[in-house]
């Protein structure tokens, strides 16, 4: 069989699973937004190729230099605001509409899944469009670009931080619980556009698999999860997801 045939068979198998299984969980990472022009973290041109996470994405970095951290977030916010959801994001909206139980867990903080129209979304690393006051705990949406640097809390005057999860921080326990519940009930788990190296998200697929889910991956490059997958589709999410939706709806490739 040629590689093309392998890929076609894998796509057909995935369609078959999706038709027969009502409970589906999707985990996405930065790769899904790559075709919207937003850099990934670890690939060529990725953020962590040019910047050190310890200087920009840890509580210690923020305590040391909040201005620098906010400048980086403000720059990312300006990039993301100009970006549009891509065909991969939109295909996931279609899948959600067509499947009875669908949970989208994303590591992305850009909000593009929601902007595309996805509803059942768990943003496990938070949102770049929210600010949080570590002093009084207030969280609110903030879409200002540029944002005053550094921004201060209206309620208590404290220094605001982006409401995202940084290295060394725990996920919001309520969001993690909701993710765990979806994962242990999943019959199919689809992992898309993540290098699967950041915990706990990197283990989600294995939790779902241990609870009985079939595992599929969409990514142009192999990841540590690839060897555990029942099915692998090699390529970009913006190319493969629209094909998947077409086949799912019974249309030709
Ligand atoms: P990474 O940058 O680590 O990985 C991106 C993945 O997307 C790689 O496996 C690429 O092969 C794949 N990829 C690239 N282009 C793609 C495309 N068009 N379609 C599909 N896949 C593509 O990003 P994440 O795995 O999301 O954490 O990174 C996880 C976390 O590390 C992020 O949420 C962030 C980061 O530090 C926090 O900010 C807490």
From TrEMBL:
Q: Which domain of life is it from?
A: Bacteria
Major localisation:
cytoplasm
Residue numbers binding Zn(2+): 133, 136, 153, 156
Q: Which Pfam families match?
A: SIR2
Recorded catalytic reaction(s): these are:
N(6)-acetyl-L-lysyl-[protein] + NAD(+) + H2O = 2''-O-acetyl-ADP-D-ribose + nicotinamide + L-lysyl-[protein]; N(6)-succinyl-L-lysyl-[protein] + NAD(+) + H2O = 2''-O-succinyl-ADP-D-ribose + nicotinamide + L-lysyl-[protein]
Q: Which CDD domains match?
A: SIRT5_Af1_CobB
> Where's the active site on this chain?
125 (proton acceptor)
Sequence ranges assigned to domain Deacetylase sirtuin-type in this UniProt record: 4-251
Q: Which keywords are on file for this protein? A: Cytoplasm, Metal-binding, NAD, Transferase, Zinc
Q: What does the record say about how the cofactor binds?
A: Binds 1 zinc ion per subunit.
Top enzyme class, one word, equals transferase
State where NAD(+) binds.
Answer: 107-110, 193-195, 219-221, 237
Positions that bind substrate = 73, 76
Q: What does this protein do?
A: NAD-dependent lysine deacetylase and desuccinylase that specifically removes acetyl and succinyl groups on target proteins. Modulates the activities of several proteins which are inactive in their acylated form.
Q: Which family does it belong to?
A: Belongs to the sirtuin family. Class III subfamily.
What is recorded about the protein's domains?
Answer: 2 residues (Tyr-73 and Arg-76) present in a large hydrophobic pocket are probably involved in substrate specificity. They are important for desuccinylation activity, but dispensable for deacetylation activity.
Protein name (record) = NAD-dependent protein deacylase
> Which species does the entry assign this protein to?
Desulfobacca acetoxidans
Annotated gene:
cobB
